[in-house]
């Protein structure tokens, strides 16, 4: 940071502001113009009727059924056959170019006595005699019977649902495929069966209707989005997970990251805090490198953050898990790839959809803290007394305690027993029962969300436009911290000619968060846990603010100074994000099977932050006003501006061809060029003339600070992929990519990363025929591939020189501080890419007409040449070790998933349901690291990532004699130094933890702190998640829909040893802890409670730790390590679709949906006040302290309307 004069600042501020203003408004102008053009195009298309232009259609020597199916697949027509007199097995050939649909139907049904009605995208085929009949021959129902068989093997189909929609009655075929149902001639019977295409038949004069059903080709031909293209799911040879929009849309969440959490066992998403604009941590199958790195997230091919994506826009998500699946993305994909495809337009009439919901939020954890001043003070005084040489926390005498006890039952202040009393000298005494949690936080909050989408088009142009507004109240109470979010997405697809297509995709995101208190809101949450006794109240009787009191032996202000800051209400923090992305694509069909793809994507993001602090008044004596001006209350205004500019150019071609109907070949090849530029500047001033107006021109201070920075990098990649399969049985894929990155030396800039995979669909073999009736699909696959990791700093290979100013008052002229320069650590001249190599063995199975599907994978991932500090340099060099390619690690894991889908009839109504479950696990070991002595404090060979080393505790001492006897045998001074120096009860006593001497040297210690000599420590747990799982299901019946989703982690440990885990330890951390729970008090050791969980009540034992003074509870041990495994009811939704007149509305659905409704965790036994996900959050003020923005459960009611 550089300090400059006031005149210099004003000049710089003017120029910087002018440049930022121009840059910001220039980008706004671009976005506005694009939106205007896009809106004009859409407005011309909104009528949405199909153009009366011809279509191309070619089939040769196929059945009528196959021709109709191709027409349905190729152009999206819905085809209903209402006559059993139509010969669907007749062979036909059609070759039509630019002809009407009626002309093509004439050719398909040539020679047959049929008529057809074409309405928009719906085709109804009838016998000519039927078409001429306006009314049924009779209105009396009669029994219709028949048999349903499989069109492939002619075997009967058991359990087919046969429904008469007009009567509402339904039946199921028996073991012989037979059915019987009442119907009136002219009514339509619908036949449905999981894994088969639905059949609709109009009842005619015959009483017998035999039906042939064919396997649903959409299941066999289900397409999955992969890198630079798509593939049939059945032909995939890499590890790819798919999540559909039905699992994401409509969830009461603020971002797509929250919606995706828990939907795939390999996708680990940790939401950092409960704040609406919270960031997230994400990995696929665990961390790919000790240096971190996140998966590449592409939304319609554009890099984007999930918390800036409207979850209701998502059509599907593909998770590329192994190197073979992700290889075409090269260096960007070292940690895996998440491909998000958003919804697009349709070639049908306009469809307008509105979704709105209103919700109520509550904490996922308990908040019933002790609010009795008397009860709180009794507990706190005891903890404080035994940690501070016999000194109580309160300076209260017997009369004061009597006054407290007198008010013990007053939930609200009684005028006859005031909670604040002024002594004769003006000093205030406090006797309250104040609920500080209720004052600081909202126990319930409101949120609402509104989504509107418009989609439609024709066979030439398709469009999709959506908009979202999301608002939620924050958790803060004196001044709320609301969050507002707007997002707009527009997609346009144009068929310019028969061989050229153009598409554009625009997204705009705006998010604004405002909050009171400290700039880092986690600091506020940490501070309010200190010194907020229920005795105190926010304001004295004369309206002055309570801050520093003279009734305690602890100097911190009430709520760690936060009562003064929050009650005065003159601090403010605001962060605003504007982000726009646009991608244009051009596709050119050169010859049959060969297509060229050209695209350009641009992303601009601007983040603005403004933070204001002020002096604040308070009173400790009646009639005396003091002003707090220390660092938290300095009169200071800060602003930051961050801008990100990113461009991506892609050019690739794909060619596909089939020989002899069995040799299927496809090749993709191309290049990708990326540039990224980031800039940041920050300004702060003091001495502002107004508490409320935030403007640098109002500054009368003398201290100004300006800081900033910028960085840029480029990458160039050339990639290719070849796919081949023989008759859908034998599958092969080879791919590779060469990447060049500006983040490395020119001589090591390029990396080459190949991959390959094979698969065998055993179920397509002839010998599988006896099994095919119940075992429909069986595929085994294997892949191997390598990827490069370049997720390092932009200038890692450059040894930088940093400038700064001298600290303190060291000057030459008495005014200006001295500037100096220093070098960074040296840089290794052979630094190059980290390499990630993955092996994956997988199996995909389907049973019972694809009702039951299973997928399983076992994988091994080696990460080599990780960039870590190398060998130590001589001390005289004066610098830390250079980073070299000095470390390797290996990850082993597996994952499985099941899905069951079925249909039935319930009370003569169709009933469809599905069940799904997924489970995955992995472990990572370090296989190479430059740590010859294997220090535990660093990574070492053989280390399992996440291992927690700690002590064993043999319970709590039952008596003082037992403790003294143990202390005579075992030197426990490692943990008793602070006790012996400051506490009333010196040494070990009854109720203290009994640390075990595991190595038998009669001394509790860390030994040499190595794996070979860890002292008395062993591995007692692991901080990484194990056995991530998800399960749930859904059903729909008679307009009612229901879905439920559970998600959790089977094994994970957390030790609350950060020294700041106040919510868990309470007064063991700080004795004057604000939020004291009765659950903890009931578990504190005493002579009357010798079997308690927590030890003797001594404050500060869980507060801090350093090399000279080790506290008994801050060092990890097996008694107080927590199992933060959990099972969470992630989502529950119940909806009802109302009957509507289709003339005016297509659908109205009302629903209830809840998110994070409940959780179960072993940690609840000892603490119901820390959410297990919050416990391991890295975004708390002190990492892993559990003190973060509260996670919320959401109860919402909403409505979906489709016009």
Question: Could you explain how this protein is built, in words?
Answer:
The chain contains 17 helices and 56 strands. By secondary structure, it is mostly beta strands. The strands form 14 sheets. The chain has a 22-stranded antiparallel beta barrel. A five-stranded mixed sheet has the order 16-21-22-19-20. The protein has a four-stranded antiparallel sheet with strand order 9-8-11-12, with no helix packed on it. The radius of gyration is 35 Å and the shape is globular. The two termini are 58 Å apart.
Compact overview of the structure:
It is built from 17 helices and 56 strands.
**What share of the residues lie within helices?**
10-25%
Q: Proportion of β residues?
A: 35-45%
Provide the residue-averaged pLDDT.
87
Total beta strand runs:
56
By secondary-structure content and strand pairing, the structural class works out as: mainly beta
- Major sheet summary line: 22 strands, antiparallel, barrel
Radius of gyration (Å): 35 Å
Low-confidence stretches: 1-52, 130-138
Mass-distribution shape: globular
User: What is the CA–CA distance across the termini?
Assistant: 58 Å
Number of helices: 17
């Amino acid at each position: 940071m550089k300090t400059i004069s006031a005149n210099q600042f004003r000049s710089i501020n003017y120029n910087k502001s002018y440049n930022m203003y121009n840059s910001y408004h220039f980008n706004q102008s671009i976005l506005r113009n694009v939106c205007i053009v896009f809106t004009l195009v859409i407005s011309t298309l909104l009528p949405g009727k199909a153009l009366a232009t011809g279509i191309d259609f070619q089939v040769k020597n196929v059945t009528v059924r196959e021709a109709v199916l191709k027409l349905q697949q190729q152009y999206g027509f819905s085809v209903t056959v209402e006559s059993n007199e139509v010969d669907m097995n007749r062979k036909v050939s059609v070759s039509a170019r630019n002809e009407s649909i009626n002309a093509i139907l004439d050719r398909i049904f040539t020679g047959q006595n049929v008529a057809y009605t074409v309405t928009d995208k719906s085709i109804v085929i009838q016998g000519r005699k039927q078409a001429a009949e306006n009314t049924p021959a009779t209105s009396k129902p009669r029994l219709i019977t028949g048999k349903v068989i499989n069109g492939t093997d002619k075997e009967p189909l058991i359990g087919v649902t046969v429904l008469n929609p007009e009567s509402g009655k339904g039946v199921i075929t028996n073991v012989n495929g037979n059915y019987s149902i009442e119907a009136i001639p002219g009514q339509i019977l619908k036949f449905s069966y999981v894994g088969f295409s639905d059949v609709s038949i109009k009842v005619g004069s015959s009483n017998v209707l035999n039906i042939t059903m064919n396997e649903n080709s959409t299941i066999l031909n289900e397409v999955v989005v992969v890198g630079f293209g798509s593939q049939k799911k059945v032909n995939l040879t890499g590890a790819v997970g798919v999540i559909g929009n039905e699992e994401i849309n409509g969830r009461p969440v603020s971002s797509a990251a929250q919606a995706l959490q828990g939907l795939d066992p390999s996708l680990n998403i940790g939401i950092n805090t409960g704040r609406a604009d919270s960031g997230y941590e994400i990995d696929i199958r665990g961390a790919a490198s000790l240096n971190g790195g996140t998966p590449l997230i592409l939304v319609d091919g554009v890099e984007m953050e999930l918390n800036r994506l409207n979850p209701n826009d998502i059509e599907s998500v593909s998770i590329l898990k192994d190197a073979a699946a992700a290889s075409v993305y090269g260096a960007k994909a070292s940690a895996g790839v998440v491909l998000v495809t958003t919804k697009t337009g349709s070639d049908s009439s306009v469809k307008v959809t509105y979704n709105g919901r209103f919700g109520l939020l509550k904490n996922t954890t308990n908040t019933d803290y002790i609010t009795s001043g008397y009860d709180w003070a009794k507990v706190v005084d005891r903890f404080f007394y035994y940690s501070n040489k016999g000194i109580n926390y309160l300076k209260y005498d017997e009369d004061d305690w009597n006054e407290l006890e007198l008010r013990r039952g007053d939930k609200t202040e009684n005028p006859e027993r005031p909670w604040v009393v002024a002594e004769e000298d003006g000093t205030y005494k406090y006797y309250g029962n104040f609920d500080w949690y209720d004052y600081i936080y909202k126990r319930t909050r409101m949120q609402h969300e509104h989504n509107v989408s418009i989609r439609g088009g024709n066979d030439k142009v398709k469009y999709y436009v959506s908009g979202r507004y999301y608002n939620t109240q924050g958790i803060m109470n004196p001044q709320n911290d609301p969050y507002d979010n707007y997002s707009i997405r527009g997609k346009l697809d144009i068929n310019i000619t028969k061989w050229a297509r153009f598409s554009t995709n625009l997204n705009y995101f705006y998010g604004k968060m405002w909050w009171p208190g400290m700039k880092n809101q986690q600091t506020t949450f940490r501070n309010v846990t200190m010194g907020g006794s229920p005795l105190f109240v926010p304001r004295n009787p004369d309206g002055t603010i309570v801050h520093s009191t003279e009734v305690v032996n602890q100097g911190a202000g009430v709520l760690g100074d936060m009562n003064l800051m929050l009650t005065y209400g003159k601090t403010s923090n605001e962060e605003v994000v504007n982000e726009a992305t646009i991608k244009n694509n051009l596709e050119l069909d050169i010859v049959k099977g060969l297509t060229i793809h050209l695209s350009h994507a641009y992303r601009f993001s601007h983040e603005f932050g403004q933070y204001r602090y002020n002096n604040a008044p308070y009173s400790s004596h009646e009639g005396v006003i003091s002003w707090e001006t220390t660092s938290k209350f300095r009169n200071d205004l800060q602003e930051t501006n961050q801008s990100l500019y990113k461009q991506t150019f892609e050019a690739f071609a794909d060619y596909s061809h089939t020989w002899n109907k069995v040799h299927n070949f496809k090749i993709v090849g191309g290049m990708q060029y990326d540039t990224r530029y980031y800039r940041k500047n920050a300004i702060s001033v003091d001495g502002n003339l107004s508490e409320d107006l935030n403007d640098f021109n109002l500054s009368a201070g003398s201290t100004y600070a300006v800081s900033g920075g910028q960085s840029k990098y480029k990458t160039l990649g050339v990639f290719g992929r070849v796919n081949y399969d023989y008759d859908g049985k034998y599958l092969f894929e080879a791919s590779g990519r060469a990447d060049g990155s500006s983040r490395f030396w020119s001589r090591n800039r390029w990396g080459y990363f190949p991959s390959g995979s094979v698969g065998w669909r055993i179920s397509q073999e002839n010998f599988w025929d006896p099994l095919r009736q119940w075992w429909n699909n069986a595929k085994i696959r294997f892949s191997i591939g390598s990827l490069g990791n370049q997720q390092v700093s932009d200038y890692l290979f450059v040894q930088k020189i940093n400038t700064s100013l001298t600290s303190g008052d060291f000057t030459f002229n008495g005014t200006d501080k001295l500037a100096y320069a220093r070098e960074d650590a040296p840089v290794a001249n052979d630094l190059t890419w980290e390499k990630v190599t993955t092996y994956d063995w997988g199996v995909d199975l389907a049973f019972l007409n694809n009702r039951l599907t299973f997928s399983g994978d076992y994988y091994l991932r080696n990460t080599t040449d990780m960039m870590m500090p190398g060998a130590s340099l001589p001390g005289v060099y004066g610098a830390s070790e250079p980073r070299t390619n000095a470390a390797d690690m290996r990850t082993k894991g597996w994952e499985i998933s099941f899905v069951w889908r079925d249909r039935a009839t319930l009370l003569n109504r169709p009933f469809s349901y599905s069940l799904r479950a997924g489970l995955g696990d992995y472990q990572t070991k370090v296989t190479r690291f430059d740590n010859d002595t294997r220090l535990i404090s660093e990574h070492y060979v053989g280390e399992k990532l996440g291992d927690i080393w700690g002590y064993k505790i043999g319970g709590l001492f039952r008596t003082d004699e037992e403790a003294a006897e143990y202390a005579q045998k075992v030197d426990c001074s490692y943990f008793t130094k602070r006790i012996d120096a400051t506490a009333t009860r010196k040494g070990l006593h009854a109720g203290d933890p009994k640390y075990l001497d595991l190595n038998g040297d009669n001394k509790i210690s860390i030994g040499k702190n190595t794996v070979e000599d860890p002292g008395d420590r062993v591995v007692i747990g692991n901080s990484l998640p194990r056995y991530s799982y998800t399960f749930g299901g859904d059903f729909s019946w008679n307009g009612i829909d229901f879905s439920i989703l559970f998600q959790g982690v089977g094994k994970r440990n957390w030790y609350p040893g950060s020294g700041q885990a106040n919510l868990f330890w309470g007064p063991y951390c700080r004795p004057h802890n604000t939020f004291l729970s009765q659950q903890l008090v009931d578990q504190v050791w005493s002579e009357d409670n010798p079997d308690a969980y927590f030890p003797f009540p001594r404050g500060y034992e869980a507060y801090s730790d350093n090399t000279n003074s080790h506290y008994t509870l801050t060092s990890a041990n097996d008694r107080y390590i927590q199992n933060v495994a959990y099972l969470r009811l992630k989502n529950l939704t119940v909806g009802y679709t109302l009957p509507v007149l289709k003339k005016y509305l297509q659908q109205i659905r009302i629903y209830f949906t809840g998110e994070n409704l409940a959780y179960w965790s072993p940690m609840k036994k000892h603490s119901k006040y820390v959410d297990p996900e919050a416990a391991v959050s890295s975004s708390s003020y002190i990492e892993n302290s559990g003190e973060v923005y509260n996670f919320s459960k959401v109860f919402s009611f909403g409505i979906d309307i489709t016009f």
